[in-house]
Amino acid sequence: MARVDAVSTGSDGQVRRTVLAVPGSSDRFIAKARTLGVDAVFLDLEDAVAPHVKEESRARVVAALNDPAGFAAPLVTVRVNDWTTSWTYGDVIEVVTGAGARVDALLLPKVRSAAHVQALDLLLTQVERAAGLAVGRIGIEAQIEEPEGLLNVREIAASSPRLQTLVYGPGDFMAALGMGGLNVGTQPAGYEADAFHHLQMTILVAARAHGLQAIDGPFVGVRDLEGFRRSARSSAALGYDGKWVLHPSQVDAGNEIYSPSAEDFERAQRIAAAYAESTAAAGGAVGAIVVDDEMVDEAGVKLARAVLARGRAAGM
Hints:
Elements: E1 18-23, H1 27-33, E2 40-44, H2 54-66, E3 75-79, H3 88-99, E4 105-108, H4 114-131, E5 139-144, H5 147-151, H6 153-157, E6 163-168, H7 170-177, H8 197-209, E7 213-216, H9 225-238, E8 242-245, H10 251-257, H11 262-279, E9 289-291, E10 294-296, H12 298-313
Parallel strand pairs: 1-2, 1-8, 2-3, 3-4, 4-5, 5-6, 6-7, 7-8
Antiparallel strand pairs: 9-10
């Protein structure tokens, strides 16, 4: 059954308004990532790492995870390579054996079927046991970024108790579908509607049906803050919990956009309080009331509770 607060936290109870992508091959970027005020970071062994340094980057990621300096972000994950490559097994073995106690989840890219997640789950279980770690503590985040994955997303969302989030991957989707444009996360020129709506909504519905978070992918124009804001506002309006950030300039905007406004949070508090009073026997057991000149019934209260859950998770 889906969690009632799934709109704000995943099955691990963590908020993910901003998820910082960090190349696992770069000591400089890893050092910078330690201090940023994001909700989560992922050390990347996939797209951000060149093929000839993928294996050596594993040791760099393990060292970074074990560094006593730690990360300001409360959630630290690692993106391994996808199952079509020769690196996935080695990524999991080396990272979890070397620093599994400091890894909250593994992000699996290019997930096309439930079997991809289940294979990672089985491998993780064996490695956790061999390393003396608590079995099942390390979560899985599944990145949906290809047509086959979208067609199978309902089965993927139900594939493992370790699963915490579904992540929308715009870049690979744009390439696979033949969309125009070269800027990942930017709407293709010449199309008046939202080209990403069906992709994002399908992932979101599957996530919510299974109590998972839905995370939006990156907007690569790191100097185009207004473009990032437009992209983030669009997925936040749908109900996405957060978005990848690639640059410090995107962090504050992401944290703001994926948190309720103070006005909405306060109004949600008024709605919840008024409805609780009116539905109680002492308040007349009334099921529909008026708050701020708008009718409120159980459906409206559910929206208010969702806003409250999101705000409280963000520290409001």
